[in-house]
Specification:
The structure holds two protein chains of two kinds. Chain A is α/β, with parallel strands linked by helices. Chain A has a six-stranded mixed beta sheet with strand order 1-8-7-6-2-4. In chain A, strands 3-5 form a two-stranded parallel sheet. Chain A starts with a strand and ends with a helix. Chain B is of the alpha+beta class. Chain B contains five helices and twelve strands. Chain B has a four-stranded antiparallel beta sheet, with no helix packed on it. A two-stranded antiparallel ribbon of chain B has the order 1-2. In chain B, helix 1 packs parallel to helix 3. The longest helix of chain B has 28 residues. The interface between A and B is medium-sized, with 26 and 33 residues. Strand 5 of chain A pairs antiparallel with strand 3 of chain B, so a sheet runs across the interface.
């Protein structure tokens, strides 16, 4: 399992569509947000959006809309998830949203891999915004380890409070 | 729950009885040493029964009975896995090794989908383990497979026909005995190709490899199949399956 943490910059005009929603970012945020390339989302993005909605978490595509988007499918046994962006406003109003999203993702991945893998490999990222910066947490490892992302998020909050 | 076969109504338990009976007969032929004609005949018999099971599934769906539609989907997957296993033995005996490998992988995939509906169905784990053992004893294994990165745009939901972004169905989930997939994708572009240990489709194998300069070998049998004059020392010849168009029967 590898978890990388970094501070990133985003073009806020593009991202700030609805900061009350979880935003689904294109798969290569650094390149895509410069506006020089085609906007591409991971194939799983639409399913993630629907699963989150079933659990009462509204999300939207950060740029463009799902119907006109181009999707990348990596034909690997690994599950590639989109980068989910949590704005400072969303996190302050709904402190449980990260926990809910991680649970939704874990349950969904276990379900679609049932019969094929007991603890499938996943690769996905999360961006947590606060007043100062945007922290990106990139996760790669078994789905059972996704809860570590929540620990990082909670630890970060404790440090700042 | 009832099904209709040749204008005769069958109860659910009669259908299950017939399903168990045909699988029992198939199991007796599911060995390398059984006669290929008998195995082909059995595969045909299973295919006929499969059509019937899919008919029962359609009836359950028409009655809004999702539970039984999913049970019939489970039967459909186990029947398909058994057909693939039978065809694998026949292909092996004809020395069609790549085709045999494809059947083996497809059989394993079908069992995976069957388990999505019911994990504790009788004999399913034994069947899966048996296929794993065949994989490790009959085939030499593949250290790497080909994995494509594909860009797609558009397409419809296989369940309701609407754009997948506009409906409530979720890709790869099972609804009334059918797996939701994105179909009718018009815009497809290959973004990249990579060698990976764990591909989504294990049928995407290396088929030819230049083990020594100028000597091209079949990757499965290792037989020398071609010799070419050495002109440069740039790279090695590798031939592989990029994408297998043969979709599993998941509708």
């Amino acid at each position: 399992m590898t978890i990388d943490e970094s501070v990133i910059e985003l073009d806020y005009e593009l991202v700030n569509q609805n900061d009350q929603n979880v935003l689904i970012l294109p798969y290569s945020i650094d390149a895509e947000f410069k506006g020089t390339k085609q906007i591409i989302y991971y194939k799983s993005s639409v399913s993630v959006q629907k699963k989150l909605a079933q659990s009462g978490v509204e999300s939207s595509f950060a740029i463009g809309n799902a119907e006109d988007s181009v999707f990348l499918e990596n034909r690997s046994v690994e599950w590639f998830g989109p980068t989910l962006f949590f704005s400072v406003s969303l996190l302050s109003q709904n402190p449980n949203v990260v926990s809910v999203c991680l649970n939704v993702l874990s349950n969904y991945i276990y379900e679609i891999f049932k019969g094929r893998s007991e603890d499938p490999s996943v690769k996905c990222s999360f961006v947590f915004e606060d007043a100062k910066e945007k922290q990106k947490v990139s996760y790669e490892g078994p789905v059972s380890g996704l809860k570590e992302v929540e620990k990082i998020y909670n630890g970060r909050n404790k440090k700042r409070s | 729950m009832v099904g209709i076969k040749n204008d005769r109504r069958m109860t659910f338990s009669e259908i299950v009885q017939e399903y168990n009976s045909i699988l029992e007969q198939a199991r007796n032929l599911d060995y390398l040493v059984r006669d290929s004609d008998l195995q082909t005949e059995m595969a045909n018999k299973l295919e006929i029964f499969l059509v019937m099971v899919k008919g029962f599934k359609a009836q359950a769906k028409a009655h809004g009975d999702e539970k039984n539609a999913n049970v019939f989907f489970h039967f459909q997957c186990i029947l398909n896995a058994t057909i693939c296993s039978m065809k694998m033995w026949v292909a092996l005996k004809k020395s069609e090794y790549q085709q045999a490998w494809n059947y083996l992988v497809e059989a394993q995939e079908y069992i995976g989908y069957a388990k999505r509906v019911s994990e504790d169905s009788y004999g399913i784990d034994d069947f899966y383990e048996r296929l794993k053992q065949i994989e490790s004893t009959v085939f030499a294994g593949f250290p790497l497979f080909n994995s494509l990165g594909i860009l797609t745009k558009g397409g419809k939901c296989s369940i309701c026909g609407k754009p997948l972004e506009a409906c409530d169905h979720i890709e790869d989930e099972i609804y009334f005995g059918s797996v939701c997939r994105r179909v009718d994708v018009k815009d497809i572009e290959i973004n990249h190709s990579a060698f990976v240990k764990n591909p989504k489709d294990r049928r995407c194998i290396i088929t030819e490899f230049e083990f020594s300069p100028g000597k091209i070998h079949d990757y499965i049998t290792l037989k020398l199949i071609n010799e070419k004059p050495q002109t440069t020392d740039e790279g090695k010849h590798v031939q592989m399956v990029m994408y297998n168009m043969n979709e599993l029967d998941l509708d």
